[in-house]
Design goal:
Helix content: 10-25%
Number of helices: 2
Order of helices and strands: EEEHEEHE
Number of domains: 1
Largest sheet: 4 strands, antiparallel
Low-confidence stretches: none
Structural class: alpha+beta
Number of strands: 6
Length: about 90
């Protein structure tokens, strides 16, 4: 499965995943230097929706979501995974 997330505002910002399973280790994807620096930072997390919940990169789906969150005016192309499910806690409004 190969997919790419690009920025419509900054042509130099991109991420391409070329793994063959749900894993998303850094050797399975390439990105521009700024994007790679952010996404490989220890403890990197991001909101799945504008108000949460917060997620970390655990698989190809959350890697895609992180890139969509990080890159300005992001768009995805190729055979991409589904957006990760947004788990909610009872009584919490996101």
């Amino acid at each position: 499965m190969t997919w790419t997330v690009t920025s419509r505002e900054d042509q130099g910002r991109w991420l391409t995943y070329s793994g063959d399973g749900p894993e998303a280790t850094p050797d399975m994807w390439e990105a521009d230097p700024e994007t790679r620096t952010y996404l490989t930072r220890e403890g990197y997390s991001f909101p799945l929706t504008p108000t949460g919940p917060i997620a970390t990169i655990a698989d190809d789906s959350t890697l895609m979501a992180a890139a969509l969150n990080l890159l300005p005016s992001a768009r995805v192309s190729g055979e991409h995974p589904n957006y990760p499910p947004v788990r909610s806690a009872p009584g919490v409004i996101y």
